[in-house]
Write a structure and sequence with these properties.
Largest sheet of chain A: 6 strands, mixed
Number of domains of chain B: 1
Shape of chain A: globular
Number of strands of chain A: 12
Oligomer: heterodimer
Shape of chain B: globular
Order of helices and strands of chain A: EEEHEEHEEHHHEHEHEEEHH
Structural class of chain B: alpha/beta
Mean pLDDT of chain A: 93
CATH superfamily of chain A: P-loop containing nucleotide triphosphate hydrolases
CATH topology of chain A: Rossmann fold
Largest interface: A-B, 29 and 24 residues
Largest sheet of chain B: 9 strands, mixed
CATH class of chain A: Alpha Beta
Strand content of chain A: 25-35%
Radius of gyration of chain A: 18 Å
Low-confidence stretches of chain B: none
Low-confidence stretches of chain A: none
Helix content of chain A: 25-40%
Number of domains of chain A: 1
Number of strands of chain B: 19
Chain lengths: 247, 355
């Protein structure tokens, strides 16, 4: 029986005094793929940021357990060190810090010492998988990167940092068909090689094509309005969110 | 020889309000004990026997100003002048200074690049002295390129005055890269005269200041020839009670038609207790020119810190990475891998000292 990685119980979150998430419950087990869908403004990204610990998001009530430990009492870096990863919708640019150095800083923060030479050698196959030239490693993080390149750089970090649970916040948004396929291949590789669990926040289903979805959650107005298996993704693709909006 | 004088350095070409205390810098008790002996290493290059800089040396104006030049002239210290006719981009010169018991604290240097040549000179400033003075004059002949790189990693009680003047003839370029890693008080700058047509001056300046460190800078690009270009990019991080003053002047002289000048500074303010002053200046006596200046000053962006923390770096580590990034940006512009590695090691060593 697979182990529980994340358990959210009655989580309510506010931003600037406005309640965005209201009593959300969600459980993810080791190696499972969960999809979080919902209309714009439903609170999907808020859930990702809240779990990662962005101080802008105020936890009003609820409990979150990550690998058996209280997640909400940990600082952001400690959540990352514990094995939680958030792929950002709009990753930040850091002039003067190369992609290689940034990833190595994250690895070193987790206690994994790796020389630049060894890192570059180890990461070669991941770069090939993501159709990224090795020169990206020496470029300043996300500076001058296209939208697609930024998303690939996020997935490269996912592959290197090997978290227990990755939350992908609309990683497929703004990408062309080929780029979605490439990113999807990276996500699949993460899942296969590390038996990583995934919470995929998405509007589209292209990124899911290579993955076997275990559970689907529909978030509307800050509530989990529906839950089901992979068939729920197809139903929403066909009918949209209208029936949940009216409930 | 032992001379001591109070002097004023780093005057801006046009004065602003005195109460801002930005017009110049007063340095008290400037002492010259004698000539600092340079240790020069030639990597794949030799100095040419003759050049024109020895005749032009006294005429080249510098950023610190007349008072320092007069003091150095009275000291009788003669400049070490090197002329290069090198074409190999891999070649470079590395200069350090003798720190022996009888070593003096002042040095005058001249670097000339002959027509069509290229030379990169690295100067390693690791002064232990209470007070050190350096004056460098650069002469880039037609179509030549001088890259002048300085690494300031002096001891925590060292006061350093570094003064540069440069002249670029037709199609010539001076690139100046400066890294300010440590030192109690550093006064630095460069006055570059774009005398010829199509001449250029680029400067990449990076600093990381902490404790009570003080850095006072003055950069002045004078456009005389037509179609000149200049790009001065400064950036750094300030912590604790450190103090930084950046003066940057783009000076379009009448007749320099078609010239383009830009200057920009980006400063990361880690603590509320730092003092950060910036005075960008564009002087314009010619209509057909383009000048631009910008500054970005502020506290570290919280969303950026959150992003970095989400990868496992704690807040202090994330801040250190951002501070080091300011220096790495300029290290990345240094053309020789061995020197880039050396500069990175200096930064790491200094970080370890502070920890």
């Amino acid at each position: 029986m697979s182990q529980e990685v994340l358990k959210i119980e009655g989580l309510s979150v506010a931003v600037d005094g406005k309640v965005i998430l209201d009593k959300v419950d969600l459980t993810i087990n080791e190696g499972e793929v969960h999809v979080l869908m919902g209309p714009n403004g439903a609170g999907k990204s808020t859930l990702g940021y809240s779990l990662m610990g962005n101080p802008k998001y105020e936890i009003l009530e609820g409990k979150v357990t990550f690998k058996g430990e209280d997640l909400l009492e940990k600082s952001v870096d400690k959540r990352a060190k514990a094995g939680l990863f958030l792929s950002f919708q709009s990753p930040q640019e850091i002039p003067g810090v190369t992609l290689a150095d940034f990833i190595r800083s994250g690895m070193e923060a987790k206690g994994e010492r790796v020389s630049l030479y060894k890192f570059k050698k180890n990461v070669k196959s991941d770069l090939e998988l993501l159709n990224m030239d090795a020169s990206y490693l020496d470029r300043d993080l996300n500076v001058g990167f296209s939208g697609g390149e930024k998303k690939k750089a996020e997935i490269l970090q996912l592959l290197c940092l090997k978290p227990a649970l990755a939350i992908l916040d609309e990683t497929d948004s703004g990408l062309d068909v080929d780029a979605v396929r490439t990113v999807s291949a990276g996500v699949e590789a993460y899942k296969k090689s590390h038996n990583g669990a995934l919470l995929i926040i998405t509007h589209s289903t292209k990124i899911l094509e290579a993955l076997s979805v275990d559970r689907t959650h529909v978030l509307v107005g800050g509530h989990i309005a529906a839950e089901g298996g992979p068939e729920l993704v197809d139903e929403i693709n066909e009918n949209g969110f209208e029936k949940y909006l009216n409930n | 020889m032992n001379m001591t004088k109070d002097i004023t350095v780093n005057k801006i070409p046009v004065r602003t309000w005195n109460h801002l205390a930005m017009n110049d810098a007063d340095v008290s008790g400037v002492n010259i004990s004698g000539k600092a002996e340079a240790k020069v290493a030639f990597e794949g290059v030799t100095a040419a026997r003759s050049g024109v800089l020895k005749d032009k040396y006294d005429d080249i104006k510098t950023s610190a100003g007349e008072e320092l030049s007069e003091l150095l002239a009275v000291s009788g210290i003669k400049p070490d002048i090197y002329a290069f006719d090198n074409r190999d981009e891999n070649a470079y010169v590395k200069i350090g200074f003798d720190k022996g018991e009888n070593a003096g604290n002042a040095h005058l240097l001249g670097i000339e690049a002959k027509e069509g040549s290229v030379i990169t000179v690295y100067v390693d400033h690791s002064e232990d002295e209470d007070m050190s003075l350096f004056q460098t004059k650069l002469y880039a002949a037609k179509g030549s390129l001088i890259r002048f790189v300085q690494l300031f990693h002096s001891s925590d009680n060292a006061v350093v005055i570094d003064d540069i003047g440069g002249v670029c003839e037709d199609g010539a370029k001076i690139e100046l890269y400066q890294l300010f890693i440590s030192g109690a008080e550093v006064y630095a700058g460069c006055k570059a005269c774009l005398a010829g047509n199509d001449a250029a001056f680029d400067a990449g300046i990076a600093y990381r200041l902490a404790g009570n460190q003080k850095l006072d800078m003055n950069y002045h690009a004078v456009f005389e020839g037509k179609r000149g270009s200049c790009d001065i990019q400064a950036g750094g991080a300030l912590r604790d009670k450190s103090y930084k003053l950046f003066r940057g002047t783009i000076d379009f002289v009448n007749g320099c038609a078609g010239s383009v000048g830009a200057e920009n500074e980006s400063v990361l303010l880690i603590d509320d207790t730092v003092v950060n002053k910036t005075i960008p200046l564009i002087l314009c006596a010619e209509e057909d020119v383009q000048g631009a200046h910008g500054a970005s000053l502020g506290r570290p962006d919280e969303e950026l810190l959150f992003y970095m923390q989400s990868r496992g770096l704690d807040r202090q580590e994330a801040l250190r990475v951002l501070e080091k990034a300011k220096l790495d940006r300029v290290i990345g512009l240094m053309p020789h891998a061995a020197m880039r590695e050396y500069a990175s090691c200096l930064i790491t060593e200094k970080e370890n000292e502070y920890e």
